[in-house]
Amino acid sequence: MFGFLIQWPTILTLPMFPILVWMYVRLARQEEREALAEFGDEYARYRAKTPAFLPALGKAKYQDNSSTKP
User: Fold this and answer.
1) In the structure, what pLDDT confidence band is assigned to residue 69 with cuts at 50, 70 and 90?
2) Helix (H, G, I), strand (E, B) or coil at 46
3) pLDDT tens track for 30-49
4) How far is residue 35's CA from residue 29's CA, in Å, rounded to a whole number?
5) Are 61 and 49 in contact (CB under 8 A)?
6) Are the beta carbons of 58 and 50 closer than 8 angstroms?
């Protein structure tokens, strides 16, 4: 959304930006509730180790040793 605002800065996009961000946050929270209901503890573990919106700013809370190395 921020890139869209930079790419197409108009009077219309300025008020739309916070509204759309708010709508996407609400949608993400709803989808998280649905995923938690469907996948239970498996999703809760995933959510605990994965940042929600800005993955580059989050730190890994675990080390995945499940990959196979020759």
Assistant:
1) very low
2) helix
3) 999 999 999 999 999 998 88
4) 10
5) yes
6) yes
| Predicted local confidence at residue 11, as pLDDT | 87
pTM above 0.85, yes or no: no
Q: Are 29 and 52 in contact (CB under 8 A)?
A: no
Residues 6+ apart with CB under 8 A from 36: 43, 44, 47
Tokens of residue 50, six digits: 């994965």
Question: Do 24 and 2 form a contact (C-beta atoms < 8 A)?
Answer: no
C-alpha closest to that of 60 among 42, 48, 68: 48
Helices within 1-70 (DSSP H only)? 2-7, 13-39, 41-49
* Residues 6+ positions from 1 with CB-CB distance below 8 Å: 17, 20, 21, 24
